[in-house]
Amino acid sequence: MKAPRVTLEQWRTLQAVVDHGGYAQAAEALHRSQSSVSYTVSRMQEQLGVPLLTIEGRKAVLTEAGTALLRRSRSLIAQASQLEMLAWNMDQGWEAEVQLVVDAAYPTDRLARALQAFMPLSQGCRVQVREEVLSGVEEYLISGTADLAISGLSIPGYLPQQLNAAEFVAVAHPQHPLHQLQRQLNHQDLEQHLQVVIRDSGRRQPRDAGWLGAEQRWTVASLSTAAKLVSSGLGFAWLPLHEITMQLETGLLKALPLQQGAHRSSWLYLYSNKDKPLGPAAKILADLIIEHSTAP
Length: 296
Prior knowledge:
By secondary structure, the chain is an alpha/beta fold. Helix content is 42%, strand content 21%.
């Protein structure tokens, strides 16, 4: 790939001529001589091989080609400025990226609100969000990969910040045989039917969580898959309320009338990497996660 023949400074000069209405005005704004500005634009036109400006009276006017190129150049200059600002922020200790690992049970809407609030404060910092289940979050935190982690587990050696509780509801399709009993259900009733459970994404010491009394269990990789299977009439499951609100409202799912344990609450916690101090961006994001975890 050939190196660009026209520099960013030349594009800035052309923008100044157009924005300020002429060579003299651009020269004053750029603190340069008028002859220098005129030469820069003239040289640009030679290098590009197309006319960019014409003089009408005392005013410089863009040609059709100049209009198209100037529009693209504004985006180019803006990106270059953002790149320089990111480099300056990194020099000041601002992170280029924050790794956030989240348990799938954490309400997505609350995470989205925190990330939306972080966006205008991010100063170019990217956020890598990874969703895991149970000990999968723990493994990323202990390995040092995660800067921040949201988990429902008590992880030894870490001091967490308590967030909101995730509510789980025992559900099945309205036409499921358990609903056809039309009475309160006990554990013997559940034992006779298929339970859908979500696989722990951890590899070292995966855990089983929830009620495991059913003789037949199908294990899936995600909450959304479990919700779809149960909504189709296949089995029953305890699923996070935030994941199945629409299915409950539209009648695809119905809460099971259990004698006990139909609803469960599990507290979630925010952890941070203990082996390295959080940078300013990660601290801001952590504060926003805490703030929005309890917002209605």
